[in-house]
């Protein structure tokens, strides 16, 4: 990413809980010191393994975006003390330092059913009808890298059923501009979502509206050339 002067967002999670990753704070500090250029470094956690020490390390790591999704059986419950401690640290950081940290805290029901993760979610295998789903822009704007360097299409393919290469064998830019990813993009541009194994049973709604939205189609075409 440094080699290509990357500018954008880097998420330190993918259908996972990053706070249980060994040496996670070393990874965060390395990334934020190596790749600067005004990037957004986003960290998302469910807060279960959060404690005061981890909160302090998060704030010191150099990331500038933290999202805490609290999965609760009662949405009227107060935020846990450990989450409030994180908020206090972020507030203090934003007053004292030039580098600001965005913090979002969301309450979500533990029984909430989300998307079907390309048919792999245990509590939701079936997708919404295709007419409900709009054009999907994910392969044009992001990709997923697992801990072993395997490249996946997007976060909807939670188990990376379709791999596009490995960073141990290829450069990221070569995979991003490679023929396999471009095949998926071209099929989506043609409205052929059902022809792609990973995408055909995925109920990610895509962009609002249908593929026939000519303005959206033109914008996507221009930015992907």
UniProtKB/TrEMBL annotation:
Q: Which Pfam families match?
A: SPASM
What are the 4Fe4S-binding SPASM domain coordinates in residue numbering? 136-203
The record ties this protein, via InterPro entries, to: 4Fe4S-binding_SPASM_dom, Aldolase_TIM, Radical_SAM_PqqE_MftC-like, rSAM_sf
PANTHER family, per database record: GLYCYL-RADICAL ENZYME ACTIVATING ENZYME MJ1227-RELATED (PTHR11228:SF27), RADICAL SAM DOMAIN PROTEIN (PTHR11228)
This chain belongs to which protein, by name? Answer: 4Fe4S-binding SPASM domain-containing protein
User: What organism does the UniProt record list as the source?
Assistant: marine metagenome
């Amino acid at each position: 990413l440094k080699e290509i002067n990357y500018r954008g967002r880097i998420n330190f999670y993918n259908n996972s809980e990053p706070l249980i990753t060994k040496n996670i704070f070393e990874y965060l500090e390395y990334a934020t010191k190596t790749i600067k250029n005004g990037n957004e470094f986003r960290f998302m956690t469910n807060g279960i393994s959060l404690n005061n020490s981890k909160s302090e390390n998060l704030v010191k790591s150099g990331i500038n975006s933290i999202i805490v999704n609290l999965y609760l059986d009662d949405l009227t419950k107060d935020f846990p003390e450990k989450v409030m401690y994180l908020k206090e640290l972020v507030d203090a950081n934003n007053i004292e330092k030039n580098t600001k940290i965005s913090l979002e805290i969301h309450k979500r029901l533990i029984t909430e059913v989300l998307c079907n993760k390309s048919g792999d979610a245990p509590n939701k295998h079936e997708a919404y009808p295709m007419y409900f789903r709009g054009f999907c822009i994910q392969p044009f704007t992001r990709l997923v890298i697992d801990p072993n360097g395997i490249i996946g299409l997007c976060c909807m393919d939670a188990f990376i059923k379709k791999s596009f290469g490995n960073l141990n064998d290829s450069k990221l830019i070569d995979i991003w501009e490679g023929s396999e990813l471009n095949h998926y993009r071209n099929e989506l541009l043609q409205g052929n979502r059902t022809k792609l194994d990973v995408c055909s049973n995925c109920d990610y709604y895509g962009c609002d509206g249908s593929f026939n939205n000519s303005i959206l189609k033109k914008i996507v075409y221009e930015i992907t050339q």
